[in-house]
Design goal:
- It is a single chain.
- This protein has 335 residues and is mainly alpha-helical.
- The protein has a single domain, classed as Hypothetical protein af1432 (Orthogonal Bundle), CATH 1.10.3210.
- Helices cover 62% and strands 0% of the residues.
- The longest helix has 24 residues.
- The protein is flat and about 65 Å long.
Length: 335
């Protein structure tokens, strides 16, 4: 009996009846012999962690464009906070924490430079449209490994595609990530907004703080415990009505007071314009795309508009600025 088979037996013995057992996965797009050590979801987690797309997240915006300070979140640190919250909840509910972690680590791989501003920019200019959750699936199915993809399991890809607010993941582990994403960004964005002087704790309406807690630590504790308490031994991941309502209203408060605040978003129009100009430029000069993107069109029949989006979405903030500068700013003006 292999180490993997022993691990799968432990899952059967310990996990909840509602957990996604590794041995019951619907499998990969392309069949692979199983690993002798790692169950399938642990293997997926490792593949995401070692991917180039994952490493690039450290240089992509979360909320604040090029913030002045080392302690603001990036897309990578956001991903790690989502992962930690998801693992905590999954473990408490005796669900498959490897699956929850893999989904969490992969959920934002397709995000553009400059956060949702970049996503909006490509969605406006590309006739195919653009959504980061679909792009994340495209990254793991096609773009990584120079067109080979990561060949992840169906459950991980389903969780990545459905992590958005309107998504409906097929596994409880995917449902955990969907909520953990919101728990993470609401709370760490409050922390970053306070660091930037945009928001004070006292600015948050008292009715939300009385339910969720006074401070980020208390709010995280309340939200995680509420999910665990209300989901234990149930075939769903749910929250109590009052906590869920308070979290949703706090999210709406953040949209009004932080996510569209000029101090956080004052440069977004410039960032959007820059990415749209890059899209138009490469649409006219496809021959300048790296060879792996040309191969997507020539060998895999991918639409040029989609491939141009692939290239731009994969850029980091700094690289997008550099490419734009190289194309449009005279060298004598560059510093």
């Amino acid at each position: 009996m292999t180490i993997r088979e022993k691990a799968e037996m432990r899952e059967e013995e310990f996990f909840s009846e509602f957990a996604s057992l590794s041995k019951n996965s619907r499998g990969r797009i392309t069949f692979e012999d199983p690993c002798d050590i790692r169950p399938v979801y642990q293997r997926d987690r490792d593949r995401i962690l070692h991917s180039k797309s994952f490493r690039r997240l450290k240089h992509k915006t979360q909320v604040f464009l090029k913030p002045q300070g080392d302690h603001y979140r990036t897309r990578l640190t956001h991903t790690l906070e989502v992962s930690q919250t998801a693992r905590t909840i999954a473990k408490a509910l005796r669900l498959n924490d490897d699956l929850a972690e893999a989904i969490a680590l992969g959920h934002d791989l397709g995000h553009t430079p400059f956060g949702h501003a970049g996503e909006s920019a490509l969605n406006e200019v590309c006739p195919c449209g653009f959504a980061h959750y679909e792009q994340s699936v495209r990254v793991v199915e096609l773009l990584e490994k120079k067109g080979r993809g990561l060949n992840l399991t169906w459950e991980v890809r389903d969780g990545i595609r459905n992590h958005r607010t309107s998504g409906n993941p097929s596994t409880l582990e995917g449902k955990i990530v969907r909520l953990s994403d919101k728990i993470a960004y609401i709370n760490h964005d409050i922390d970053d907004a306070q660091r930037a002087g945009i928001l004070k704790e006292e600015d948050i309406p008292l009715r939300y703080r009385e339910i969720l807690g006074f401070g980020i630590r208390e709010r995280l504790n309340t939200l995680i415990h509420d999910i665990v308490k209300n989901s234990e031994n149930k075939p769903d991941i749910v929250m109590s009505a009052d906590v869920e309502k308070a979290m949703q209203e706090l999210r709406e408060f953040m949209f009004r007071n932080v996510y569209i605040n000029p101090r956080a978003k004052g440069e977004e129009k410039k960032a959007k314009n820059m990415l749209q100009q890059l899209y138009l430029y490469y649409s006219r000069h496809l021959e300048l795309l790296p060879s792996e993107y040309l191969n997507l069109m020539e060998e895999k029949g991918q639409e040029k508009e989609r491939v141009v989006c692939d290239y731009i979405a994969g850029m980091t903030d700094e690289y997008a600025v550099k490419v734009f500068s190289d194309i449009y700013v005279p060298r004598s003006w560059q510093t």
